[in-house]
Amino acid sequence: LARRSRFSPTATMATLIMLLMIASFAAALVLQQQNQAEAYLLTQTRIWELGFGGLLALFGARVVLPRAARTTAGWLGLGLVVSCGFVLDGAALFPGPAALWPLMGMALILVSTAPPSSDEPDRPRTAAALLSTTPFTRLGDIAYGLFLWHWPLVIFTLEFHGDSGLRLTDAVIVLALSLLLGWATHRFLEQPLARSSSIGNAPRPRRAMTLGLAASTLVVGGLGATAYVQKTTAPQEDGLAMAGVDRMLYPGADIIHTENSARDVEFYPELGGISRRVPEYARTDCHQPTGDQPGSGEVLVCEDPAAPENPAKTIMLAGGSHAGHWHNAWIILAEKHDWEVLVATKGGCVFRGLDTEDPNTCDEWLAGFPEVLAEHQPDLVVTPGTAVPQETGTESIHEGAEEQWQAITDAGSELLLLRGTPRQEHNVPDCLAEGGDELDCAPDYGKYAEVNPLKDLDLPENTYSLDLTDHFCPDRECSAVIGNVLVYRDSHHLTNEYVETMVPHLERELRESIPDLFSSQAS
Question: Is residue 322 within 8 Å of residue 384, measured between CB atoms?
Answer without folding.
Answer: yes
